[in-house]
Design goal:
Helix content: 10-25%
Largest sheet: 6 strands, mixed
CATH topology: STM4215-like
Distance between the termini: 26 Å
CATH architecture: 2-Layer Sandwich
Order of helices and strands: HEEEEHHEE
Low-confidence stretches: none
Number of helices: 3
Shape: elongated
């Protein structure tokens, strides 16, 4: 559920609002659940590879907790310009989740990455973010990589999402 960022929800609402958008499978396509009806975990808050290796979990997105920076503080300190930065990582298995379909990982990667770009370039979704006090959303692709994990090829794309606002932060 989307909640406008306020002085009491500076970090939680920022994170939850982004998660609700990227976890909406009608907005960001999960190649393993095109219909959007599965309860499969698609967006993680930490790297699932740190726990165990399950190639059946691929593809997925890791959404890191946002960092927050203050600037342009008013004389009384009650109003500040806030800027959030949030890391997003997309991972796919080169041979797909079943580890057997050549090219599936590349197609999965482009499906997810194109969906993310469409989300943050969409006027409709940008307006949704602005209604939640999240302005100037910008998705920057930082890196593309190919990793070997347990002798399997994995594709990885990393992004930084930034958004900002100027608001009252204390009463």
């Amino acid at each position: 559920m989307a909640t406008a960022i306020s002085m009491t929800t500076l970090e939680s609402a920022a994170y939850d609002n982004i998660i609700s958008l990227i976890n909406d499978k009608s907005i960001v396509t999960d190649p393993r659940d095109v219909s959007g009806t599965s309860k499969r975990l698609f967006v993680y808050d930490s790297d699932p590879l740190h726990k165990s290796i399950n190639f059946g979990d691929f593809p997925y997105i890791i959404a890191e907790f946002p960092t927050l920076e203050y600037s342009k503080v008013s004389t009384d300190g009650k109003v500040k310009h806030l800027k959030w930065s949030m890391g997003l990582t997309v991972r796919t298995a080169k041979d797909g989740a079943g580890q057997g379909t050549s090219g599936a990982g590349k197609n999965d990667m482009f499906t997810i990455c194109d969906s993310l770009q469409a989300l943050f370039n969409s006027i409709t979704h940008r307006q949704t973010l602005e209604d939640l006090n999240m302005f100037f959303a910008k998705l920057t692709k930082d890196d593309v990589d190919s990793l070997t994990v347990s002798q399997k090829q994995v594709y990885q794309s990393t992004y930084t999402l930034t958004f900002e606002t100027r608001m009252v932060v204390s009463s």
